[in-house]
## 1
Amino acid sequence: MTAQSLLTTLLPLVADLSRELPEGERYRRLLQAMRALLPCDAAALLRLDGDWLVPLAVDGLSADTLGRRFKVSEHPRFAVLLSSPGPTRFDSDSELPDPYDGLVDGLHGHLEVHDCMGCPLFVDDRPWGLLTLDALDTERFERVELDALQAFASLAAATVNVAERIERLTLRAEIYREASGQQHKEMIGQSKPHKRLVEEIKLVGGSDLTVLITGETGVGKELVAQAIHATSTRADKPLISLNCAALPETLVESELFGHVRGAFTGALNERRGKFELANGGTLFLDEVGELSLTVQAKLLRVLQSGQLQRLGSDKEHQVDVRLIAATNRDLADEVRNGRYRADFYHRLSVYPLQVPALRDRGRDVLLLAGFFLEQNRSRMGLGSLRLSSDAQAALLAYNWPGNVRELEHLIGRSALKALGNCRERPKILSLNAQELDLPDVSTPLIEAPADTALVVTGDLRQATEHYQRQVISACLERHQHNWASAARELGLDRANLGRMAKRLGMK
Ligand SMILES: Nc1ncnc2c1ncn2[C@@H]1O[C@H](COP(=O)(O)OP(=O)(O)OP(=O)(O)O)[C@@H](O)[C@H]1O
Ligand SMILES: [Mg+2]
């Protein structure tokens, strides 16, 4: 590389440092410049977040890579790269598994990375992350001077430093961990609807407003509730959850408000309710649409006064609780139909937050697939777990009635089945479209007679419920009345299907 071409590659990057660029774009340009300088098949920039490496930008790697979260202790190459102060090049016959095996957008069937090098980045003398370069053929990097990578890494460090400073000015809600530590509770996604959701979480998280989270089954409502709590000023106080659907009415009350000894048969001891446990923190009422009118009235009183009484006691307790609620029902509709109290509904929906369906999040489905693939790879002790390109296309084409949860289960199930079909443990396990175990979308759930329009007379609600009954019973028929597998096909949680069937008078 001549000094002239080196300058033409690097100068724009130096200029970028002082420019206002959208998040991601800065990093993408950085990787492009690196690939121009040091030819390779794939490059990545990863940020170190505790024990995890989070890809911020990738070039030449499959789309799902951006959603993967790499635990450093499970990827020895990353560990080696992070532990040396300068660039490292791995011998092409190195025995260490490569985290990108199967992920480089290479020629068909050419999946294993053969030449690999990388360099840690330091910001304020602290390890910030990694730059990595990979090639599918051997000895590609032989001629490349490690000095060039080292020089580039300094420029990269300056770039991330600038980006971090800009980012630090805005609150960051994307990444947080459960108080217990290990589990990575992150909301994966880069689509516009996802980003809008994250912005809203930041916005409302900073307030003390009551939030009503709505959205289809499996979209991530619970995760959103946790994120709101984590970004709020109450983050270091408890987040207490109650699933309102899981308990019969009498127990819901004692769960919420607590009881004194002898308040009802079986109340052997005095017990504090979720409200008191959440004092100072947040109470998350999941499936809030399932509360009976009576309990709604009692909750309303507590919300209005901030005072509650344990069951069987007339003593008042003062509580300071922020409320978050979630439902996949249309509560406004429930109000119109007299099944929900209007005043309670208005108390809940001070800030309504709609979580978008997975089918509306574009390529996020691939990122999420990558996130779950890496989890399963780790759990199953595999070297690499990847999607073939027809599998990626199938995921993008499917309409995900059960949203993220359906995707999570699908990946886990498919990986297990694919492994079961292997005679010996593969180095790289690829899932193709057939192995994905997607419901056959080409056959409609109900065969409608051709050319006959569906004639609906009377009340729309009754017609809809009638249709739902038909779909559910046909599906149960197909699954020999196995509720769990029928729920899977319908993209519903098993408990939700049970409740729905009950509401439709089928149980
Ligand atoms: N953006 C995301 N990134 C990573 N994981 C996600 C994301 N959204 C959802 N999940 C995961 O998908 C699963 C379903 O999410 P969650 O339980 O929050 O959905 P839900 O909307 O509450 O579903 P339901 O309506 O059935 O109660 C969980 O395992 C959750 O961790
Ligand atoms: Mg939920």
Note: The radius of gyration is 27 Å.
## 2
Amino acid sequence: MKQVKAASLTVILAVSMALCLVARAAGQAGQPAQAGANQAVSAGNALFQQNCAFCHGRDAMGGETGPDLTQSRLVRSDATGEKIAAVVREGRPDNKMPAFNFSTQQIDDLVAFLRVRIAAAQAGGRRGVDPSDLQTGSVAAGMAYFNGAGGCSKCHSPTGDLAGIASRYQGLQLEERMLYPKNAKSTVTVSLPSGETFSGTLAYLDEFTVALRDANGSYHSWPTNQVNYKVDSPVDAHVKQFSKYTDDDIHNLMAYLQTLR
Ligand code: HEC
Ligand code: HEC
């Protein structure tokens, strides 16, 4: 595992990888020239969501029937991925963990995904530990970045949706919201061969199936190869920003956001 000194940088790395893969899992056209490592992580994320998430939770931090894998000693200490591979291939039949017949590639992808989840859990676990780190930025530079290079003002307003944000969230919690607005919903428009179109909240997407929930709450799904669809994920802007932020940008933005009380 890489040693990265600044807490915020750790958060960014972990969260940005996690987000890239979330974006990819949501089926957008991939970001240009993603590193191979990110592809493994995103493939691992897709596998995990389909096969493991309903027991271990979507973020691998534990679900109703499966333990938190980010805290598992076996997972954390598995430098080569062999122990994870063994559990996944053999299962734990006595303990309600099924066996999966995955290829080496698929296992490697899952391991890559779990590594990112561990890093993100570690970063999140630092909540409140280092608030002074979040006080080092320049409010003026943060405001300039917000309105300029960061492009934040295209979607946000300090007197509108972000008014009072610093009263709602503090410290690392605020930083996490900024880096990873996990509640933002993606929307999708599906066009059928007949010309009919449907729009709604993206409910499911993989290689084969696209599904949405419409304004009345009804669920519709189609085979992806029989329709055209376009996913609009507002969080994309946040994902793209990850590759551009410097540590100073983050600190300045945090200084600025913390004035919005
Ligand atoms: C039906 C529920 C279920 C599914 C699906 C499932 N698991 Fe598990 N998993 C469990 C349970 C329960 C345990 C704990 C078993 C035990 O206590 O020995 C476990 C344990 C594990 C462990 C060992 C953790 C440790 O510390 O010993 C790993 C690694 C793991 N699962 C990975 C996965 C992966 C990867 C997938 C998807 C490919 C997956 N699991 C799918 C229920 C599930
Ligand atoms: C293309 C539009 C877009 C851009 C550009 C954008 N955001 Fe966001 N942002 C969103 C959406 C959508 C959400 C999710 C809103 C929600 O969760 O209610 C969000 C959420 C947030 C949140 C959490 C708000 C909350 O109430 O939880 C913060 C903080 C934030 N963005 C900061 C920024 C900053 C700083 C930038 C610039 C570096 C930026 N955003 C750029 C669309 C955008």
Note: Residues 51-52, 55-56, 65-67, 69, 72, 74-75, 84, 87-88, 92, 95-98, 100, 110 surround heme C (ligand 1) (CB under 6 Å).
## 3
Amino acid sequence: MGTAGSGKSTLALSLFERLQTAEVDSAILNLDPGVQWLPYSPDVDIRDYINYGRLVEEYKLGPNGGLVASVDAAVSHIGEMKEELEKLDPEYVIVDTPGQMELFAYRNSGMFIASSLAENNFSTIFLADSIFLNKPSDFVSILLLSYSVNVRFKAPQINCVSKVDLLPKDVYDRGVLWSSDPEMLKEAFLGESVDLKTEISERMLEALTDVGALGEFIFTSSNTGEGLDDLYAQLQRIHTSSEDR
Ligand SMILES: Nc1nc2c(ncn2[C@@H]2O[C@H](COP(=O)(O)OP(=O)(O)O)[C@@H](O)[C@H]2O)c(=O)[nH]1
Ligand SMILES: [Mg+2]
């Protein structure tokens, strides 16, 4: 999950390749009904079941209305998608969600699809685009978004910063500090603007820290492969049951 263009589809491929290197069998499920081009070839594809263009024509919908209708309509094909996945029988299914995250994250059908397909054995990966490291308030806003996804999906969540290859070294280093040291972030955030309601902001940041929203952020790049080992290690930690170890 992540804002539009945060690098979800690209990371789906990088993670798939990382798992391949570890000889772990995985499959990619594309849940973006409106996507024209993908960096990978999906093993299971919502577009085989839902015709976005036809829904838009038939019901005279705008682009967003069409996407909403498509994701809602996909609910009635969960059984078929699940059957396809069961035939492949991979260890991991990487699910690529629609470009605009609200279609999936903030509609009941998205959550229903995820939990039905995975029988609740799933985790969410949240991508914070590296552009959110420009200002402390940008980073705080993406923390809130990440936490709101976590509140909705109630699943183990791995937070990543994406596209870190684009960051100048000073912004990268500052980002590492903000995402690992709540005090550093608080200081930067409160120092950014006198307009912010200081005391409430401070309490909000403390609350985010208390609920673990700050926690660990893996700095990833699909271009250089940075962070993919960590991401895979986190997935193993979450999904390897004690019997398998
Ligand atoms: N420099 C850089 N660009 C990336 C990276 N990951 C994705 N992109 C680019 O960001 C754009 C959006 O990526 P995409 O995966 O389609 O985002 P999505 O909408 O979240 O699925 C594309 O032009 C990608 O090539 C990365 O790690 N580094
Ligand atoms: Mg995408």
Note: The CA atoms of residues 27 and 93 lie 5 Å apart.
